[in-house]
Amino acid sequence: xxxxxxxxxxxxxxxxxxxxxxxxxxxxxxxxxxxxxxxxxxxxxxxxxxxxxxxxxxxxxxxxxxxxxxxxxxxxxxxxxxxxxxxxxxxxxxxxxxxxxxxxxxxxxxxxxxxxxxxxxxxxxxxxxxxxxxxxxxxxxxxxxxxxxxxxxxxxxxxxxxxxxxxxxxxxxxxxxxxxxxxxxxxxxxxxxxxxxxxxxxxxxxxxxxxxxxxxxxxxxxxxxxxxxxxxxxxxxxxxxxxxxxxxxxxxxxxxxxxxxxxxxxxxxxxxxxxxxxxxxxxxxxxxxxxxxxxxxxxxxxxxxxxxxxxxxxxxxxxxxxxxxxxxxxxxxxxxxxxxxxxxxxxxxxxxxxxxxxxxxxxxxxxxxxxxxxxxxxxxxx
Length: 382
Fold this sequence. Notes:
Elements: E1 2-6, H1 9-19, E2 24-32, E3 40-47, E4 51-55, H2 64-70, E5 76-79, H3 83-93, E6 100-102, H4 103-108, H5 118-126, H6 146-157, H7 159-173, H8 180-186, H9 212-231, H10 235-238, H11 241-250, H12 255-259, H13 266-284, H14 302-322, H15 326-329, H16 332-339, H17 350-364, E7 369-373, E8 376-380
Helix pairs in contact: 9-11, 9-13, 14-17
């Protein structure tokens, strides 16, 4: 297969001419985000049936002609563990390409567990052992060596073959359509751009906060997000999670009290101390109905806990029967929500409803029973 390195507008135009009309393209990226808010795209790897290309976005003024191809709804983009790559495209264009086929997600319905890595998937489907020598490469440094480019190209070299074999196996099992909801979720913009008022939920350690404290954490999380985007720096460089939690918990009223917050850097205090105090004061003035609310989860009674145990037994049994990961079918939290009557539960929809959801609802309605026969759990009446 022809392999090319693209770092000029002319080479990019030639590549785009070669890719137009392809029904499916394999795609991967190399990036850095340790020191920035927005991911720094360092390399794009693309494979068609005819060629593999490593595209250097750092050497090109624009990759828009290539993005236009990715955003063509007639082209299936085949990726492995696609979410981080898709987040890059969302940052670049404010929208997402599609349709997408994620070989990691597809593998879960073929009995390969929850999150099989790309190297292991290649080994399972092709018998090839991938070179891991350049796993920790700094992809922003130039020039890239031959070994690095070979390693990068390998990330897409086998994807189209795996994609077609996975589709064949899924079709044999009658499961190809089951994945559509999962793939649709991957290209849902809300996955990558949650409402700012919910950013406090991403602050680690927020569980003990309540009431007005949550309102403070919410205000600080929104301010941090805006600052991080403006200066293109990681959130933690603007304000660490534990600092947000401590401010929300202690409710400082002046700079002297703010200085006592452990982990709050002196330069942050100097530049933004008054702003932080203002945010705390504003949050404290909010009426109670404006405070963030946590979902009210009632503590399970021993009897309800036992019912969830039975539900989990059904999930494990059906997972084993259909060679599907138990975690993918439904975890304990999802089962508790279903028992509580959640109408939007994934277990009521799509392939999960077919495999196990209907059995679970039948159990909750008293229309399904369990018994043990020859050391195996048997589900009756589901």
